[in-house]
Design brief:
- The protein is mostly helical and about 230 residues long.
- Among the domains are: about 60 residues, Recoverin, domain 1; about 90 residues, EF-hand (Recoverin, domain 1), CATH 1.10.238.
- Helices cover about 55% and strands about 5% of the residues.
- The strands form two sheets. A two-stranded antiparallel ribbon has the order 1-2. Strands 3-4 form a two-stranded antiparallel sheet.
- The chain is elongated, with a radius of gyration of 20 Å.
Length: about 230
Amino acid sequence: FLPQVDSANAGRVLASDAAVFLKKSGLTDLVLGKIWDLADTDGKGILNKQEFFVALRLVACAQNGLDVSLNSLNLPVPPPRFTDTSSPLLLSGTASSDLPWAVKAEDKAKYDAIFDSLNPVNGLLSGDKVKPVLLNSKLPVDILGRVWELSDIDHDGMLDRDEFAVAMFLVYCALEKEPVPMSLPAALVPPSKRKPLSVPGAMPLIPSSTSTKESHQSLPPVGILAAKTPLTQ
């Protein structure tokens, strides 16, 4: 990463150059500001090689839902991921398709049992059915709101089996006093939600993940439209 931001090969990185590069991590300005403050130990607005590596390590921590603090530097995390900010949809799709899902199989089985006990309709749970489960955790409402936003990955106001597992995973993390991330770490995006995102042409077909008869009836025309529109343009 260093040659990309240290074009003069001076062994140090200016704040302006680092800001442009770190933006590609997909993290919020608030989080990136915190990372910079921790890495720029002497407050000079310049990072030497060692401080720059600290910044990269903290980016990796934030992307994997860990607390942005010097205590996290010794924790094992995958290397940080950077992408072109002009394609946010590709952020979690391409970067994480080969990452193992953070939700372990034994935990998934537990979450699936809770999911089934809530009487899903067509494999989906409405917000009204999930809300009591979330409130039951006694977590602050603002935290639960963030859990819902992060887990409703396709923003349809419903959670499918995998999205519900993400919500439960985040709730249990919060109960263990781990911070709920501001954006969903790539490792937490369910494998079922990753592949469509990496192929822009497949975007209109995302509803196919819900196994309802209605969506299958409406899919062919949507798929045909999606295939034809680029040609007519």
